[in-house]
Amino acid sequence: MRKLIYLVAGARPNFMKIAPIIRELNKWSDRIYFQLIHTGQHYDHDMSEVFFIELGVPPPDHHLECGGGSHAEQTAKIMLAFEQVCLQQRPDCVLVVGDVNSTLACSIVAKKLQVPVAHVEAGLRSGDIAMPEEINRLVTDSISDWFFCTERAGVENLVREGKPSKEVFHVGNVMVDNLLYQKQKLDIMPPNAFSTSVHKSRLGRYGVVTLHRPSNVDNSQELLNIVMALNAIAQNIPLVFTVHPRTGNKLKNLQTELSKNITILGPQPYMEFLNLWKDAAVVLTDSGGLQEETTALGVPCLTLRHNTERPITVEQGTNTLVGTDPVSIMQATLAVLERPTKRGMKPALWDGKAAERIVSQLSICLE
Hints:
- The chain starts with a strand and ends with a helix.
- Strands 3-2-1-4-5-6-7 form a seven-stranded parallel sheet, sandwiched between helices. The protein has a six-stranded parallel sheet with strand order 10-9-8-11-12-13, sandwiched between helices.
- By secondary structure, the chain is an alpha/beta fold.
- Helix 5 links the parallel strand 5 and strand 6.
- It is built from 16 helices and 13 strands.
- Helix 1 packs across helix 7 and helix 1 crosses helix 16.
- It is globular and about 60 Å long.
């Protein structure tokens, strides 16, 4: 008898992680079938629907439309809506990815209904309980049944926390699966297929910036520090800043302006953004996913945070933690521009086959 899996996606990073799992599940349709649940955590076109189209993700079977509100409001709305979906047709497993509110909310609902939970990207820890994502990670892992880890540190964290080792699997990184798949497509497309190619041609050597974490953008002093650093860096190299809607709202109220050498873009479709950052001299970000993707392609990355839940990107990859002090950011950037100090290497199992390992192991778990 075929097993039913609910795949939960709600925010932009989820879509990238779900896409390779869907491609692999389609190969197992005689044993496993799935329904895609879009919680609506990211609800505008640029942050959600365009990704479904571009990544080849099918339309969701259920769209919960739970965007907006505080963390508590959003989590509560998702839990209420997802419970109704589960009661309509009880799945054999709920698979969640990453560390967003949708991950937490749907895990709790599934577990309350005694439905097994599989967590993809399990075991990552920043050690910073002030991060909403860290709370989501800790709670989700505390109630999950099967744990699929991107790196050995995730395995070690889970075992140390008392999870049974036979349910913890080091499978690789589905974000990298998606990256390599999409890059193959990008490599055979003409440059004029992308609007970001115009900026690349105009600027020559350039850096890319993304910024969205509340600790960086909601604190006006922290945001001001980062903007001061970016303006100073832009005197040495032009920057392209893809501005998250949250960040854009905060920048409007800041008592300073961005340098004219910083090109401002809105949220970019996946392929447009990949086309941009893959050839950058340096990427400055507070994104967890971009730390992994730059490591996979060997692009120098400076993370504007004091910690990371993805330590392998620092230990083996091209990522460096630089914090939010403007002097530290500027010095680290200039060091990379003068001579990249970290060549980096691709971590174990970041080979584009993580989804294969996940679905194969999941089929065994569901027997």
